[in-house]
Design a protein that fits this description.
- By secondary structure, the protein is an alpha/beta fold.
- The chain folds into two domains: about 300 residues, Rossmann fold, CATH 3.40.50.200; about 120 residues, Sandwich (Immunoglobulin-like).
- The protein has twelve helices and 24 strands.
- The strands form five sheets. The chain has a seven-stranded parallel beta sheet, with helices on both faces. Strands 1, 2, 3, 4, 8 and 10 form a six-stranded antiparallel beta sheet that branches. A five-stranded mixed beta sheet has the order 17-24-23-19-21.
- Helix 9 runs parallel beside helix 11.
- The longest helix is centred in the middle third of the chain and has 18 residues.
- The radius of gyration is 28 Å and the shape is elongated.
Length: about 525
């Protein structure tokens, strides 16, 4: 019950989904046996890339010398699509691979939507959002996914008339590489479902909520009405998405063969600071084959979890898994203005793409590598402690990821002063260091709660801090009037550059004012209790 290859099974399931519009659905059909990976390619076509020294014109000549003709080229990647008689694909590939001027030659392998059709209306319709603490993450920001952040849904297209994508500036003009036109209308349903998870219009009294409400969506159609695609179209779609300004490339698809043209396109994306997110695969219970392009190091590969934070039974487990996200019975948008449940690492991938958009909306100066590192390092560790083959670094946590990035850190978090009538306090004028990983300035203010006569702030009680410009807070402690132990708290509150709720951090302060006789005994103890 994973990738649906056969038209009959597909049409039956999607018809039931569309007709239900959220009602109970019929039992899904079992998935037919997957095709043999070695034979799973577009008949009558091979892909070849010559070494850069050859040049495009010379490449055409050299193909002609072999009795071959290029029917097209993937723009920007210089990968030639060569027509051959069906049944002669491997023979042609073998011949081309013997040439010293050929960088690679391969069949035009197929890729598929990586989803499973499991439907259970008794489950909470959008359990995945609270599972990753998305509502708490939204509270941090005054916007949920900046409108300048574009997520490319490289898939089966998007239902362009769906009401949950009708908010202002949600959908960008895209492209259909299957039919070679500028109308990337979804005729399969998969891309629409993925798009809704990542960035459906939200808080609009219509349908469902997306992870990144305000992020824009670029529909790039590379899968046909049966959920099938090719290496060549996928590579072209990725290249197009990058050139159209998408910062996040969502690949909720894959195949069991190497995808050389797609890898070229992914390298192009990464070289231009784009984040490529791909589904880890849905055959964990059927041999657990390696899935491309998730296996590539440049890709953030996503496994699927269930409502109990366990591994979805179908989710693949490999060393290439980087993180996990909800992927079982996920309720989202479907084509023909409808809604329904789907399951798969496809769905999990869309959650991660939405989180990346939230991060970039909070801090547009982050690099793709930094966004990836933040998502990985703040994931909820599941399974075996540390990174493992089932969950990677863990199940994503949107709130923890944003909170760790936009909250100001302070050092130390505890101060202890010691003084008598003649000496001290120790230290005379303590400093508190304020730092943040954010590349955008974050404003901060400090208050002393409760206010006390023996402690004040030296200089301005507010300022800004960024990764490039840390700040220092100076304090002025003075002796209390009488001997005793006094306590208060510094409350340092930061606010992100784009607004949102205040994020406070506290520093506990204690002052021991003692007769001089006790100074000798207490000083070493209290000094050791004072953090540097």
């Amino acid at each position: 019950m994973h990738v649906i290859y056969w038209v009959a099974a597909l049409m039956l399931i999607l018809t039931l989904i569309g007709a239900s519009n959220g009602a109970a659905l019929a039992r899904p059909l079992d998935k037919p046996p997957s095709p043999s990976p070695v034979d799973d390619f577009v008949p009558g076509r091979v892909l070849v890339k010559f070494k850069p020294s050859v040049g495009v014109a010379a490449a055409h000549d050299r193909l002609a010398q072999q009795g071959l003709r290029a029917s097209g080229v993937i723009v920007g990647l210089d990968v030639f699509k060569v027509d051959v008689p069906p049944g002669k694909e491997w023979e042609t590939v073998a011949r081309l691979r013997t040439r010293a001027d050929v960088l690679y030659a391969a069949p035009d392998y197929r890729v598929y939507a990586l989803d499973t059709f499991l439907n259970d209306p008794d489950w909470s319709r959008q359990w995945g959002l609270p599972q990753i603490q998305a509502p708490k993450a939204w509270d941090i920001l005054s916007t949920t996914g900046g409108a300048n952040i574009i997520i490319a849904i490289v898939d089966s297209g998007i239902d362009l008339d769906h009401p949950d994508f009708a908010c202002a500036n949600k959908l960008l003009p895209g492209h259909d590489f299957v039919n070679n036109d500028n109308n990337p209308q979804d005729d399969y349903g998969h891309g629409t479902h993925v798009a809704g998870i990542a960035a459906a219009c939200s808080n609009n009294e219509i349908g469902v909520a997306g992870v990144a409400w305000a992020a824009r969506l670029l529909p790039v159609k590379v899968l046909d009405r049966n959920g099938n695609g090719s290496d060549s179209n996928l590579a072209a779609g990725i290249r197009y998405a990058v050139d159209q300004g998408a910062r996040i490339i969502n690949l909720s698809l894959g195949g069991q063969n190497g995808l050389p043209a797609t890898r070229d396109a992914i390298s192009y994306a990464v070289s231009r600071d784009r984040l490529v997110v791909a589904a880890a695969g849905n055959f964990g219970d059927q041999g657990n084959p390696v899935i491309y392009p998730a296996v590539y190091d440049e890709v953030l590969a996503v496994a699927a979890t269930d409502q109990s934070d366990g591994r979805a039974y179908f989710s693949e487990y490999h060393p290439y898994v980087d993180v996990a996200a909800p992927g079982v019975d996920i309720y989202s948008t479907l084509w023909d203005n409808s809604y329904g449940w789907l399951s798969g690492t496809s769905m999990a991938t869309a959650f991660v793409s939405g989180l990346a958009a939230l991060l970039w909306s909070a801090d547009g100066g982050l690099s793709a590598a930094q966004v990836r590192a933040l998502i990985e390092s703040n994931a909820e560790d599941l399974g075996t402690p540390g990174r493992d083959i089932y969950f990677g670094h863990g199940r994503i946590n949107a709130w923890r990821t944003l909170d760790a990035h936009v909250r100001v850190s302070v050092t130390p978090t505890q101060l202890t002063f010691l003084a008598d009538a003649e000496k001290g306090p120790v230290p005379a004028q303590p400093q508190i260091a304020l730092t943040t990983p954010s590349t955008q300035p974050i404003t901060w203010t400090v208050t002393i709660t409760p206010a006390v006569s023996w402690l004040s702030v030296a200089g301005a009680p507010s300022g800004s801090v960024s990764a490039a410009a840390p700040a220092t807070l100076l304090l002025n402690p003075t002796r209390p009037i009488t001997y005793g132990t006094y306590q208060t708290t510094l409350r340092i509150t930061s606010t992100t550059a784009i607004g949102g709720r205040p994020l406070p951090v506290t520093v506990n302060v204690a002052f021991h004012y003692v007769p001089q006789l006790y100074q000798v005994t207490l000083a070493p103890i209290l000094k050791n209790a004072t953090l540097p």
